[in-house]
Design goal:
It is globular, with a radius of gyration of 17 Å. By secondary structure, it is an alpha+beta fold. It has a five-stranded antiparallel β-sheet with strand order 2-5-7-6-11. The protein has a two-stranded antiparallel ribbon with strand order 1-8. It has a two-stranded antiparallel ribbon with strand order 3-4. The protein has five helices and eleven strands; from the N terminus they run H-E-E-E-E-E-H-E-E-H-H-E-E-E-E-H.
């Protein structure tokens, strides 16, 4: 299992492309939060690289909120990606949220990402994430709320493969990507009614 830290989006793309060329490459995930520290290491070929340190205390900031919507057997999720996207549309309308910045078909569900206009510390981000999870519960959106409130979460990037099935399923972008980020105040205002009894953050 490989853990890599990168310093830019371009470097992240290059790293994913490199991993995909490896003979034993399987599931690829990207951390939703940036990290404070990483570990300098040297490969067997003598090349230096940065190893990620994935734990709650090492999260520096997050710049999005996210929802993992289930597409699985009856009663445990939606029957199709189309049904999941339709339910998401009804949810964001009910909560007065803007449309997701992007949606990813993960090969087993739908990941909806809401990009924010500034990076938030975990302390700033957690109440918004908790309120979003509470909103999904109140409006019966079939999703994994533990994903939404997890500052250490990793999710699948598009154009990779989900190897939980045989043959593997591709991860894809669903629909158009929204150009621009949403103001934190805009998102906070929509989620204000759902700031109630909030769960404790996940700590790893």
């Amino acid at each position: 299992m490989l853990f890599r830290s990168v310093r830019s989006v371009d470097e992240a793309v290059r790293t994913i492309q490199w991993v995909q060329k490896l003979a034993d490459a399987r599931d690829i995930y990207v951390a939703m939060g940036s990290q404070k520290e990483c570990i300098q290491k040297t490969s067997k070929t003598g090349k230096g690289y940065l190893e990620a340190v994935r734990n709650h205390n090492n999260v520096a900031a997050l710049k999005s909120l996210f929802i993992d919507i289930d597409v699985k057997e009856e009663n445990k999720g939606y029957g199709s990606v189309k049904d999941a996207v339709s339910a998401l549309g009804e949810f964001i309308k009910a909560v007065n949220l803007p449309r997701p910045t992007l949606m990813v078909g993960s090969g087993g569900g739908v990941h909806a990402h809401f990009e924010l206009d500034r990076a938030l510390t975990v302390e700033e981000w957690q109440p918004l994430a908790n309120a979003l999870a509470e909103a999904t519960r109140q409006h019966n959106l079939k999703c994994d709320t533990q994903v939404t409130v997890d500052a250490v979460r990793v999710l699948r990037p598009p154009l990779t493969q989900n190897w939980k099935t045989d043959p593997p399923k591709p991860t894809t972008l669903l629909g158009k990507v929204v150009d621009g980020a949403y103001s934190v105040d805009r998102i906070r205002q929509a989620l204000e009614p759902y700031v109630t009894a909030l769960p404790a953050p996940i700590v790893r």
